[in-house]
Predict the 3D structure of the following.
Amino acid sequence: MGNAPKSSLSGLPRVDRVAEHPALAAFRQRLGPRAVTELARRAVDEAREAVRGGAACPSLDDVARAAARFAEAALSARVVPVINATGVVLHTNLGRAPLPQRAVEALAATAGRYASIEIDVSTGRRGARAAFAERTLAGLAGAEAALVVNNNAAATLLALAAIAAGKRVVVSRGELIEIGGGFRVPEVCARSGATLVEVGTTNRTRLDDYARALDAEGAAAVLRVHQGNFKQVGFVERPRLADLAALCREKGAWLIEDLGGGALVDLSPYGLPGEPTVQSSVAAGCDLVCFSTDKVLGGPQGGVIVGRAELVERARRDPLARAVRMGRLPLVALEATLGCYLDGALGEIPTLAALERPLDEVRARAELWQAALAAQGIPAHVVEIAAAVGGGALAETELASVAVAIDREDAEALAARLRTGEPRVFGRIHGGLLLLDGRTVLPGEDEALIEAVILSAK
Ligand SMILES: *Cc1c(COP(=O)(O)O)cnc(C)c1O
């Protein structure tokens, strides 16, 4: 015990008195009495440490206020809607793709009811799960079969486990990458039970490198990884996918691609050339292609394996498949999102709409925001900047965008107030100013955004 006199420690409020304090009344309802008592205990513990360190003994009100701050922090960890003014279209920390309206409606209609998730309606017996989504995905990709799982990390892990567990898998050293959130190719390989055989160098891997490894090591598969979230420039080389596929066929190895993004339409008309489509990977001769459904596809969190029927079936029968299956709510949302592709209603997909929005429209929007803020005495100016696709897609592509920059020195404090306000708004700091990007804010959010900025700028 430190130098605090015993008397000041005994002056600390009791936990139950703190928990009953009026400052915590609202939180007792929102968090439950047990959680509030826990937070009160934490606040008393903290006060005790401070007193032991020589601080004056805090009052009951002080300790209750500290507990209320803990409660506020606990509540702010809940998932709530936010406005994405960051300029990153697929922001992994903000939930990646917002769903198309028809997916939202399908969820609303299904979530609170029983649903024909895994039943054969003609016989009433157990049926295939995700059969519609899988047939549609296989059709759109030009593949024989598809399997839907929880995310692309799971798809890649499962593909490797089903095909290469206990065997060797060849990967270029330029593709031993980390995607973020703990997805590292060498570790995923190890977890799948496959033994990694590295070929080539960081910047250059040639077809010969693969050929030598396949001859010498007798590998079951080659894994090709899309370098979506970083770019290599300069003295770099890797074989064309079709050439690698031809080599794999000749050597009797399967070619698995981790495509990351999973574009089902050509994104070059969206001003985004260079992002491969799932169709192009299948057509190039990949035996299995793994991709996300919440990146440029624009749907809910999910992962897909498409490719050769025989291999997709092997993945489906693997015990891991059950552990990583897609939940029923994402499945409902995925089917509705795929409906947009079947109907050619791509404009209904918010991610594609954000990527496609003409620069003039983005600028006009930023100018409206600037005028609305000026009318409230908040000085701001319009700036041309680069937005980003995000979600590990198209690192090489900068998306032209326009933002409003708030002309205030306290950008960090302003950004923090916006993040914690109601609604929560996420901007980005650039050149010491807070920027609100006109490309990523969803249609219909303008008024709420402006109100939030006015409130937080006061
Ligand atoms: C995003 C990405 C992943 C992980 O996908 P999740 O759906 O987030 O699990 C894996 N590989 C690549 C190349 C990616 O871009």
